Amino acid sequence: MDEKNPALISKTVIQKLRNEIGFKGIILSDDLDTKASIRHDSIEDMAIKALKAGCNYLLMADVDDHIMRVADEIQNLMKTDNHFFKHVSNSANKIRKLADKYS
Question: 3-state DSSP call for residue 31?
């Protein structure tokens, strides 16, 4: 589907899920800590790319200092990129609604 990017950071793949298949649920990333996921990028870069591609929820199995660096990068970009801010805010709302539904 996307020869340049893995599905994790592919707008093409995520748009097909949303627009062609009609998936309306939460899209989770692959584990950002795996070598296959990060390849030549940092975990922070992959997290930003995944969110920009349309992921709603980031998975990180080995959460040591990565989580704070990823959170800082997301917060910094949210301050300067209104589209990114809206996506992250909408994602958080979707996740809260799902959690409320099953709690």
Answer: strand
**57 has which bridge partners?**
28
Of 4, 68, 2, 6, whose CA–CA distance to 31 is shortest? 6
Greatest CA span in the chain, whole angstroms? 40
Q: Which amino acid is at 95?
A: I
What are the residues whose beta carbons fall under 8 Å from the beta carbon of 18, sequence distance 6 or more?
A: 24, 54
The answer, as to whether pTM is greater than 0.85, is: yes
Q: From first to last of its 103 residues, what are the pLDDT tens digits of the chain?
A: 888 888 889 999 999 999 999 999 999 998 887 766 566 788 899 999 999 999 999 998 876 778 899 999 999 999 999 999 999 999 999 999 999 999 9
